[in-house]
Amino acid sequence: MTRFFSFLYSLVFVPIVFVMFSCDNSLEDDKRFAEEKKIESYIAAKKWKYTKSQGVYHIVIEPSYGYEVNVDDTVKFWFKGYTPQTQPLVFDTNIKSEAITASLDTNIRSFEPISVIVGKTDLITGLERGLLSTRLNQKSTIIFTSDLGFKSQIIGPLSAWSPLAYDIQIIYVNGKGIQAEKELLSTLSLSGYNQFNSGLYFKTLVNNTAVFPSSSSIVYGWYKCTLPDGTLVEEVTTENKEIDLADNILGALKVGFTLISEEGSAEFVAPSPMCFGKNGNTIVAPYQPLVFSVRLDSIK
Fold first, then answer.
1. Using CA atoms, how far apart are residues 71 and 51, in angstroms rounded to an integer?
2. Domain 178-299 is of which CATH architecture?
3. What's the average model confidence in pLDDT over 73-99?
4. Are strands 241-244 and 74-82 parallel, antiparallel or unpaired?
5. Residue 26 burial by Cβ neighbours in a 10 Å radius (0-12, 13-18, 19+)
């Protein structure tokens, strides 16, 4: 077995085994239900918050406003694969320090970011689905039941019917949607705007005080959101509206308000990951940056 194949075997290539029978559906459902209960207990013990999509649990460890991974995107990432239990069994990683800690054979592993094309590279189902919940520069944990992993197969040190967890850090993502948005952003007049690490292009209009809200503040103010061509997306219609920055509001507003001083105002352009992302909505297309005019009247 080559060094490259050994490294990728448990992560990328789905082993081909022909099974001559299938379990009763009710038994498969019972197994999945039992495994999900164990996974949720594991998550609860960690005091993590999670989302669940297509049977895959996703936990954000370190958030970011980077681009979301989409089908057909080229993605590079660091990973650690292990079993989600009190004493996890680490079975694969491309991080040398993790391999050493787990006493994995460092001679058959290449400690470089792994590169895949989502939806084309032959990943195990749970990992492929889980990647679609991740973002550039975000650290995440994805966990899934054995039916989305290796099922009854014994892979390396893994037992049959093992639920799996992967710690993932996306370090590169690119695709047609991302390229199209970057081209659009390059055509906008952004002179006088400062770009922050979040990706937000920000321009202060009025700066009256040295008092700024935090990301958990309740503020009072006004905002208008448009497409770059001026098409209205949303506008606050009441003066001095109460806005809770800790609520589930657009990342652009959450970050933008914290950059405005009390009694100040600003304009900013937000890339799609801070707005409606890769999916868009009924008004906003996927990978659509938005323009905001914002006024902060007071902080509660």
1. 19
2. Roll (3.10)
3. 97
4. unpaired
5. exposed
Task: Supply the CATH classification number for the domain 3-174.
Answer: 3.10.50.40
Distances (CA, A) of 267 to 19, 200, 283: 60, 10, 21
DSSP the chain: --HHHHHHHTTTS------S----HHHHHHHHHHHHHHHHHHHHHHT---EEETTEEEEEEE---PPBP-TT-EEEEEEEEE--SSS--EEEES-HHHHHHTT--GGG---S-EEEETTTS---HHHHHHHTT-BBT-EEEEEE-GGGTTTT---TTPPSS--EEEEEEEEEEE-HHHHHHHHHHHHS--TTPEEPTTS-EEEEEE---S----TT-EEEEEEEEE-TT--EEEE--STTEEEETTSS--HHHHHHHHTS-TTEEEEEEE-GGGTTTTT--SSSPTT--EEEEEEEEEE-
Q: What is the pLDDT of residues 158-167, one digit of tens each?
A: 999 999 999 9
End-to-end CA, the chain: 64
Q: 178-299: same fold as 3-174?
A: yes
Q: Domain residues of the chain, as ranges?
A: 3-174, 178-299
Tokens of 294: 């914002």
Q: Each residue of 134-167: pLDDT tens digit? A: 999 999 999 999 999 999 999 889 999 999 999 9
